[in-house]
Amino acid sequence: MVVILLVVVVVLLVIGLALVGRQNRMLAELTAMVQQHVIPDELGEQKSELTNQNRLYRDFLAEDAARAKLPPKERFAAFATWKQSQAS
């Protein structure tokens, strides 16, 4: 009986060590992936474009306070028209 219990304990210990080893390897791979992560230039350009759009929208609303009270569809249609007139 003691021998069987000892064998079960050894098997569980081996399984536990194998799981810990696997977890450590996965953690090392994840750490390497995070360290290699670089924000692509494209994301920086997208952020810059969004910032520019937000600034234009604030300028659009600042020119006429009544624009902020328009329903959303009308407001964004007016913004698109305003933006085209600003580009010309």
Structural class of the helix and strand makeup? mainly alpha
Label the overall shape.
rod-shaped
Q: Provide the number of structural domains.
A: 2
Beta-strand residue fraction = under 5%
| Mean pLDDT level | 87
What low-confidence regions span 5 or more consecutive residues with pLDDT below 50?
none
Number of helices: 3
* Sheet having the most strands: none
Distance linking N and C termini: 91 Å
* Radius of gyration computed on alpha carbons: 30 Å
Task: Count the beta strands.
Answer: 0
Helix/strand order, N-terminal first: HHH
Helix percentage range: over 70%
What can you see in these coordinates?
Helix content is 84%, strand content 0%. By secondary structure, it is mainly α. The protein has two domains: 1-37; 40-88, no CATH class.
